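User: I'm new to structure prediction. If I give you an amino acid sequence, what do you actually give back? Let's try with this one:
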Amino acid sequence: MKKLFIIAATILLCINAFAQDGRSIYNKYSDEPGVSAVYISPSMFKLIGKIPSLEIGSDGEKVDITPIIKSLKGFYLLNCSDDSVNGKLSSEVKKFINSNNFELMMEAKDDGETVRIMTNGDDDTIQSFVMTVVGNGGTTFISMDGLISREAFEKLMKAATR
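Assistant: Good question. You get back a string of structure tokens that encode the predicted 3D arrangement of the chain. For your 162 residues, that looks like this:
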């Protein structure tokens, strides 16, 4: 019995070691036919973060997004309209979300299209943000990595929805 437990634990550790992230999904699908891809590196975020103040929102409630931008480590966007790739991409994104314990923040469904916004992290910090749009013959996957204060993220979301 002890041997079986050790084998099971080893298998689980190996599975976690091969868990995907936004970068690996981007690397796998960015050169596929019918896929548009955008990557923004940490260096670009540092450069943008040197701008003294980038504010969004209405006049009464502006949010400075410079600290959030500085904290980002990568941005990956895939937009696929090729039916032969859509199913594979969508399936891989679902595995990625499930294996990394993302929390669903928002879901919207309209006319056969589903939009989901998810985060993963703890009560104070968001480590990853994922947005997916699936339906109407296409799949869009957006992933951002970094250490973002949950409070700053909530202020940003509030300002963006006004």
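You can read the tokens as a compact description of the fold. Here is one thing that stands out. The longest strand covers residues 138-149.
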